[in-house]
Design goal:
The complex is a heterodimer of chains A (about 260) and B (about 80). Chain A has one domain (about 1-260). Chain A contains 7 helices and 2 strands, in the order αββαααααα. Chain A has helices at about 1-15, 35-60, 65-85, 95-110, 130-155, 165-215, 220-260; strands spanning about 20-25, 35. Chain B is about 85% helix and about 0% strand. Chain B has 3 helices and no strands. Chain B has helices at about 5-20, 20-40, 45-75. In chain B, α1 packs antiparallel against α3. Chain B is elongated. The relative contact order of chain B is 0.18. Classes of the chains: A mainly alpha (about 260), B mainly alpha (about 80). The interface of A and B includes residues 197, 198, 201, 202 and 249 of A.
Chain lengths: ~260, ~80
């Protein structure tokens, strides 16, 4: 009986990972357009990102003040690797990469702030749908750039056996190279989205399970558990930075591989 | 004693997660060791080394996270 109660307390703590409907809208066909807490937190983070850069851009000065310094550090951190990886051609993707970085960062950080039950806490990046849709938009952009720059023949040709291999060998090898490259292209958005989703949900799961244990058992076990939760939350802030950085960095690497395909 | 599917799934999640951390653990160990050695040998290249290190760490870590996702599916969905 006690074990079952314990499980229920921990499961109760895990409710933070559930999507809850806030405003329900009748379904249109198979699509559910209801406004959930995930959608609301995504809106909040989008508004925060927009408001931050809007305020900074409105009061830009030669001698940066506090806010502008933060914004400049963020800009350099998010897009510093862009010209390093791609070169001059990379300037075009500045806004995409900056948006991806700041949006993921703000979403992660807002999700980490402890909130009372009434605000229906949720972290949108702990949802595979959110991360996968971001990864898909990067994937579409990468493929579009690849086809646009190299043409259909050139881009698909870059997936075949590299030049320099004798013709007689290249034909049978193409049967291996092409499917492997094709699969690799489709695994890119998958790994990109699963990485962010799993990192976020792993951190939240760990913290929530620890909090559930704390609620269940109480007593002296509170001290090490609470300490662990505090340290883990601090580590999660670091992970939020690193994951946002990795998502934008890998997007840049994928864009680079499409631009310089066949080299 | 026969396993019911739920028990088997829980067991598989635990054992699979444990096994899946072995490889990435080794990988991140090698990666960090070699990256710190590279920085020690050539401190002026630390910026490039850090970028390569973070990309490598992301790719290595992802393997354990795939197993983690499978474990979650085994625990909560199956």
């Amino acid at each position: 009986m006690a074990a079952e109660e314990g499980a229920s307390k921990i499961v109760e703590a895990l409710h933070e990972l559930n999507v809850q409907t806030v405003v329900s809208i009748p379904k249109v066909g198979p699509f559910d357009f209801s406004i959930t807490n995930a959608v609301i937190y995504m809106w909040i983070s989008a508004v925060v990102v927009f408001a931050f850069f809007y305020i900074v851009a409105r009061r830009m000065r030669k001698e940066p003040d506090g806010l502008q310094t933060i914004a400049e550090i963020l800009l350099n951190f998010a897009t510093g690797h862009l010209t390093g990886q791609i070169g001059e051609k990379g300037k075009k993707y500045y806004y995409l990469i900056l948006t991806i970085f700041t949006y993921i960062l703000v979403t992660n950080i807002i999700g980490l702030i402890p909130k009372p039950e009434i605000l229906k806490p949720y972290t949108p990046t702990a949802n595979i749908n959110v991360t996968f849709s971001m990864a898909i938009s990067v994937f579409v952009m990468v493929q579009y750039q690849g086809f646009k720059r190299h043409g259909l023949r050139g881009y698909l040709g870059s997936w075949l056996t590299p030049p320099g291999v004798p013709k007689a060998m290249a034909r049978p090898l193409n049967a291996i190279f092409f499917p492997v490259h094709l699969m690799g292209e489709f695994f890119k958005p998958l790994s990109l989205s699963v990485r962010l989703f799993a990192n976020t949900i792993a951190g939240h799961l760990l913290i929530l399970v620890m909090l559930g244990l704390l609620l269940q058992y109480g007593g002296l076990i509170i001290v090490p558990t609470a300490l662990f939760v505090v340290i883990m939350t601090a580590f999660e802030v670091f992970v939020a930075f690193i994951q946002a950085y990795i998502f934008s960095l890998l997007s840049v690497v994928y864009i680079e591989s499409a631009i310089y395909a066949g080299h | 004693m026969a396993f019911d599917p739920q028990t088997a799934a829980n067991l598989a999640a635990g054992i699979g997660m444990g096994l899946a951390t072995l490889g990435p653990g080794l990988g991140i160990g090698y990666l960090t060791g070699n990256a710190s050695q590279a920085v020690a040998r050539q401190p002026e290249a630390s910026g490039d080394i850090r970028t390569v290190f973070i990309i490598g760490m992301a790719l290595t870590e992802a393997l354990a996270l795939y197993a983690f996702v499978i474990a979650i599916i085994l625990l909560f969905v199956v």
